[in-house]
Write a structure and sequence with these properties.
about 600 residues; alpha/beta; FAD/NAD(P)-binding domain; 7-stranded mixed β-sheet; globular
Length: about 600
């Protein structure tokens, strides 16, 4: 591994008051970074709790928010609006940065700072959001109209970039880039053209066997009309029958390469490998064999994206809560602003954000129905601490709440434990230039042979003082998405998530880098790409507990019920993997406090 790619020193061991403390600039293993979940895992794995008797911090707050993601940050602001800006609020999080899945990544290339995102990506249909959210955006300086001009919808067309599929030698026999995505996933990138080749020409260029080519073309030309049911029964049939049964039984697909393409064609739209989907679910997410459709209509384009994704919203919330953390009067101005992390947890502030701190116990002092105060214990630097608050909002991962909110009713703990989260990896790669992408016309690549199933040019957004890459000779950041599944098709979602999560966390940075090296080299080297020369930095944003997946029945509603002076927020309680829903859950949680 070249020295330029050595991961930055992990800074969570540093004090936030240190002037060098700036997590967005870190590369290497991020997201659920090493150490972030160690304390939480002692509960999950039944391990001894080595942090000793808690020391009192002698702190009392009006509100403690457990979790500094979008839901928790929004909840703190909603609490201020309801109860007054003078209230003392502490937001506490086990990670070394605020924002939760709204993660900002920065890459410095030849002295130039490039901004990208490592998780929560874009505001979905924000103009149709609840008035509560629209008022919040106004309050924190988010101007939705600015995205109309900030997002360069002509970028891909102007540079001749489109959707392709990369077939790698290890899985498919030879390296090949075919100007066809063979699925609908690319369609969420606004302005990306349709496939350059017809189905017939594209299939002929794949490295599949003659049998595989014939079966792939059969899948592409089929559709719901081939199902052996009358029109009156079609809707019920596609809801209750398996997509893989449709492929293997109805269409007679036996080729392993074609089935691999199908299995990896849903990615994070499906939250599962596609053999677990119904035909209706596969059609909705645009899996292999279903015609590409527009993801959003003209009134709701998929353009509401800060250069750092929804970290731009998180930063605007933090600025509103702690005004002197950065310079800038709007979310747009904050895009390039330097945040002073030393100002997050100052004793003189009405609102404080305490990072690198894992809450391990939340319990009413006295009977929950009559208590006036809640005790909160957290662990920082392997030492337990104790404080109190009038109110607590749990804006963390729902499955952790039963372990730490000890006086919750058993039925509510059981409901919270039903929550599932699909693992997810968002990797950002800094490049000195993107000539090889332009030479091959790659704006987006499906890669069914790799851990990262999608590779694409980052969203072309220029906002405030930040300018997106202007040409192929300039540096840029590319995105790589992985929705890891079990290598054994057919296992349940829970089993696949568990296996993929274990493998994700077991891999070293070197393991990830080797896989990325193989993938980019195989895809781009025929057009002059050299990994050691052209790649400057890699950030692996691992989300072991990524997208929210609804539990059975009404478990979400039961799990989020307020209890005494404790209420529950987060996207999990919606349940929805959506930034706007996460913030709405923060509003609901505040409104439910006594």
């Amino acid at each position: 591994m070249g020295s330029a790619l050595l991961p930055s020193v992990h800074q969570s061991a540093m004090a936030e008051s240190d002037t060098a403390y700036y997590p967005p600039s870190l590369t290497g293993l991020r997201g659920h970074h090493p150490g972030a979940n160690d304390v939480a895992h002692t509960f999950a794995f039944g391990q001894p709790k080595p942090w000793g008797t808690p020391l009192s911090t002698n702190e009392t707050y009006d509100l403690v928010v457990v979790g500094a993601g979008l839901s928790g940050l929004a909840a703190a602001r909603f609490y201020q609006q309801r109860h007054g800006n003078d209230k003392k609020i502490l937001i506490i999080d086990n990670h070394d940065d605020f924002g939760g899945h709204a993660k900002r990544n920065e890459h410095t290339i030849n002295g130039q700072r490039l901004i990208s995102y490592g998780g929560s990506q874009t505001l979905v249909e924000p103009r149709q959001a609840s008035p509560i959210i629209l008022e919040l955006f106004k309050d924190i300086g988010v101007d939705l109209k600015r995205f109309d001009s900030a997002f360069d919808r002509d970028f891909f067309q102007r540079h001749g970039l489109g959707p392709v599929t990369y077939f790698d030698k290890q899985q498919f026999g030879r390296d090949a880039v075919v100007q066809h995505p063979f699925c609908n996933y690319y369609n969420y990138i606004e302005g990306l053209p349709q496939a350059a080749l017809s189905d017939e020409v594209a299939v002929a260029q794949t490295p599949l066997t003659p049998t595989g080519k014939a079966q792939l073309l059969r899948v592409l030309k089929a559709g719901l009309h081939v199902l052996p049911v009358p029109p009156s029964e079609l809707e019920d049939y596609i809801q209750t029958h398996s997509y893989y049964d449709y492929l293997t039984r109805t269409l007679g697909v036996t080729d392993r390469a074609v089935l691999r393409m199908a299995r990896h064609s849903g990615l994070d739209w499906s939250n599962a490998s596609t053999e677990l989907l119904s035909i209706a679910e596969a059609k909705e997410c645009g899996a292999l064999g279903f015609a590409p459709v527009a993801v959003y209509d003209a009134e709701n384009p998929y353009i509401h994206h800060f250069p750092d994704g929804n970290a731009g919203v998180a930063r605007a919330l933090v600025k509103r809560l702690i005004p002197d953390v950065a310079q800038g009067s709007s979310a747009e101005a904050l895009v390039t602003a330097q945040f002073n992390y030393g100002h997050l947890d100052r004793a003189t502030s009405r609102v404080r954000i305490r990072l690198n701190s894992t809450v391990v116990d939340v319990k009413h002092i006295g009977q929950p129905d009559h208590a006036d105060t809640v005790s909160i214990q957290y662990v920082q630097n392997n030492q337990a601490h104790r404080m109190t608050a009038r109110h607590v909002i749990m804006a963390c991962y729902n499955m952790m709440i039963p372990h730490i909110a000890s006086d919750l009713p058993d039925y509510q703990k059981a409901a919270l434990a039903q929550q599932m989260k699909s693992p997810l990896i968002y990797t950002t790669v800094g490049l000195r230039h993107w000539r090889a992408f332009k030479a091959q016309g790659i704006g987006f690549a499906m890669c069914p042979g790799h851990l990262h199933q999608a590779v694409f040019m980052d969203f072309p957004v220029s906002l405030g003082d930040y300018q997106y890459t202007g040409g192929a000779d300039e540096p840029c950041v590319i995105q790589m998405i992985s929705c890891p599944y079990s290598e054994t098709p057919g296992k349940s979602r829970a089993e696949q998530y568990r296996e993929a999560r274990y493998q994700m966390l077991a891999r070293s940075f070197t393991d990830y880098e080797a896989d990325i090296r193989r993938q980019l080299t195989g895809m781009l080297s025929s057009h002059g790409f050299n990994f050691d020369r052209d790649v400057t930095s890699i950030t692996i944003n691992r989300w072991a507990h990524g997208y929210t997946v609804a539990g059975p029945g009404n478990s979400a509603e039961l799990g989020r019920k307020p209890f005494g002076r404790i209420s529950i927020a987060n996207a999990d309680s919606a349940p929805a993997a959506d930034a706007i829903e996460a913030m709405l859950m923060g509003h609901r949680a505040v409104s439910e406090l006594p």
